[in-house]
Design brief:
The chain has an 8-stranded antiparallel sheet with strand order 3-2-4-1-10-9-11-15, with helices on one face. It folds into 3 domains: about 5-245, Glutamine Phosphoribosylpyrophosphate, subunit 1, domain 1; about 255-440, Glucose-6-phosphate isomerase like protein, domain 1 (Rossmann fold, 3-Layer(aba) Sandwich); about 445-585, Glucose-6-phosphate isomerase like protein, domain 1 (Rossmann fold, 3-Layer(aba) Sandwich), CATH 3.40.50.10490. It is built from 18 helices and 25 strands. The model has no long low-confidence stretch (mean pLDDT about 95). By secondary structure, the chain is an alpha/beta fold. Helix 11 links the parallel strand 19 and strand 20 (about 385-390). Helices cover about 35% and strands about 25% of the residues. The structure holds 5-amino-5-deoxy-1-O-phosphono-D-mannitol.
Length: about 600
């Protein structure tokens, strides 16, 4: 998704902007650009494709004195990924970068065209800079013109604007898309749409709230809130841990992230699992008072984790649970009752659709909880309570360790609720706690297992489709396996409940239909086996993943014997992640940055 950086200071502005954009690369983009204003002169560069193209274009350009600069990676929404559509967008004397979508851009554009303005791009963003320049003609100063412009925008945005009219400032506004400003002892100011570009440069950061706008100059940070009242910046310390974001010798972040799941899950469990109970210091039991239902809401992989949770919440905590896809929930005028705990699940905490549903829940006065990986993200700041997943920075666009930690948190939460609601005996809880502690072992990648998957993967590079099938919680895992494969291999894959295949999809069965069958020992084994046999009888090519040898399968990936189906879930999760990874590697794809995808989807 789009990324924003900005800088005011004496250093080489170009290098700082490019370095910042590099940190945002993993979010997915199709073009990039920068604009630097120094000594009243603008220099601007744009390029389609990877950042290396922009680096090439800017190789002879340097700034060695005070300058203000803005940069952007664009993920196309309005208009194709061309150089003209890349940001920054230019007016007569100003440049702008923008994340989000301006919903009323068409009417603003029409009025500007009627005034004689010529547009260079097809983007919604370009209207902002022209509208600003139009307002500047009648305004006392650039800030008044900027303020007026922002008030005229509808939609979601994070915006940085630089103008010759006041050439030592960066004007900013935030509404619905994340943005922060960072400072350091050298009196430099950095902007970005997420923490990572600021790590190593800034000691403290201020996260802008929705409705914030203002400007930053060498000496000042002036912030106004949505009611036009000036407010003080609220600085918090920025963590300095960049190490975790490196590849540690793996070819791709995704592989590294699959391998580190064992350590990561140990972190997720740390201090939360005792001999007798689950402790969430971040939760107040009052959050659950008067609650009769849990509603889980998320997108993509986080949605699959939520679906998994719905099984174990009902099974262990005996609490009615429903699951919603955020983009659907937003517009279907849902009935929300106050005895429902609304739980948003998001790795990034910035996904626009999920964030919006959280706002809806708050407006309906529901109690809210967020399961999130990014502290200080928009969702964390909005919710009544948060459980952090502690997965560390996830760089691969295809989510792996985030999913693993989400399911871990949900398993813990189901036991925490079971204790509160007395729905499991103490003995059962103690047994579950023992199992929980075994997750890190169950997700350890054995060399022999990885080698087996690597070898098998060459047989699955074609075909007319994949069906990942499973029952109970292995159905959401099947959905997740299919999503992983689609995302990074570009092969068509579906996740399906095993027992549902006979109600239609079995018509597709032939040797070129690949069935990836999730067959745990401890959950509905016989039922699942019969469903797989039905497909085998119709000549579908079957790859079974199970601890028990299965002679009807064409290929077989043998997992370890586990004590419980939850531990089988985690081990099989690793197998499907590795299978997608190896297929994608063999196809020569960019595993970490698959085409058309963005890490953090901040538009609806
Ligand atoms: O940051 P979030 O968890 O809210 O993101 C939700 C989805 O966009 C995300 O899970 C997406 O489906 C991933 N690419 C899955 O690998």
């Amino acid at each position: 998704m789009c990324g924003i950086v900005g800088y005011i200071g004496q250093k080489n502005t170009k290098e700082i902007l490019l370095e910042g954009l590099k940190e945002l690369e993993y979010r997915g983009y199709d073009s990039a650009g920068i604009a630097v204003l120094s000594d009243g002169v603008f220099s601007s560069f744009k390029a389609t494709g990877k950042l290396i193209n922009l680096e090439e274009k800017t190789k002879d350009f340097t700034t060695d004195k005070f300058a203000v600069g803005i940069g952007h990676t664009r993920w196309a929404t309005h208009g194709k990924p061309t150089e003209l559509n890349a940001h920054p967008h230019v007016g007569e004397n100003s440049y702008i970068v923008h994340n989000g979508i301006i919903e009323n851009y068409a009417e603003l554009k029409k009025a500007l065209i009627d005034d004689g303005v010529t547009f260079l791009s097809q983007t919604d963003t370009e209207v902002i800079v022209h509208q600003f320049e139009k307002n500047l003609k009648d305004a006392d100063d650039a800030f008044s013109a900027f303020k007026k412009t922002i008030a005229e925008l509808e939609g979601a945005y994070a915006v940085l604007l630089v103008t010759k009219a006041e050439n030592n400032k960066i004007f900013f506004a935030k509404h619905g898309s994340p943005m922060l400003v960072g400072i350091n002892a050298q009196d430099e100011k950095y902007f970005a749409s997420s923490d990572t570009p600021l790590i190593g440069h800034c000691t403290d950061v201020n996260y802008f709230e929705d409705g914030d706008y203002g400007y930053v100059s060498h000496g000042d940070i002036l912030i106004f809130n949505k009611n036009n009242q000036q407010k003080q910046p609220h600085f918090v310390k920025l963590s300095a841990n960049k190490l975790s974001a490196q590849k540690d010798g793996y070819c791709f972040f995704m592989e590294k992230e699959i391998y580190e799941q064992s350590n990561i899950i140990a972190d997720t469990l740390l201090g939360r699992v005792t001999e007798k109970e689950i402790i969430f210091e971040e939760l107040d039991t009052k959050l659950f008072e008067g609650i009769n239902e849990i509603k889980l809401c998320a997108c993509g992989t986080s949605y699959h984790a939520a679906l998994t949770a719905s099984y174990i919440f009902e099974r262990y905590s005996k609490i009615k649970t429903s699951v919603e896809i955020a983009s659907e929930f937003r517009y279907r005028e849902p009935i929300m009752t106050k005895d429902t705990l609304f739980v948003a699940i998001s790795q990034s905490g910035e996904t626009a659709d999920t964030l919006e549903t959280l706002k809806m829940a708050k407006e309906a006065s529901l109690k809210t909880l967020v399961i999130c990986n990014v502290d200080n993200s928009s969702m964390v700041r909005l919710a009544d309570a948060t459980i952090l997943m502690r997965a560390g920075v996830e760089k691969g666009v295809a989510s792996t360790k985030a999913f693993a930690t989400q399911v871990t948190v949900f398993w813990m939460l189901s036991l925490y609720l079971a204790k509160l609601k007395n729905s499991l005996t103490q003995e059962e809880i103690v047994h579950q706690l023992e199992l929980l502690r075994a997750i890190p072992t169950s997700v350890k990648v054995e060399n022999s297992m990885h080698e087996r998957i690597k070898r098998l993967s060459k047989r699955y590079l074609h075909g007319h489709g994949f069906f990942f099938i499973g029952r109970d919680i292995f159905f959401p895992l099947a959905l997740e396996g299919a999503l992983k494969l689609k995302e990074i291999s570009y092969l068509h894959a579906e996740g399906y409940p095993s027992g549902e295949m006979k109600h239609g999809p079995i018509a597709l069965a032939d040797p070129e239909l690949f069935t990836i069958a999730l067959l745990p020992e401890h959950l509905l084994y016989e039922k699942s086996k019969s469903n797989i046999e039905e497909l085998s009888a119709r000549d579908s090519t079957i790859c079974a993943i199970s601890p028990i040898a299965f002679e009807k399968a064409d290929d077989f990936i043998q997992t370890k014997k586990q004590k419980d189906y939850m531990l089988e879930f985690f081990e099989i999760m690793v197998v499907v992640q590795l299978l997608s990874f190896e297929i994608s590697m063999r196809l020569g794809n960019d595993v970490d940055m698959p085409r058309n995808l963005a890490k953090s989807v901040t538009v609806e």
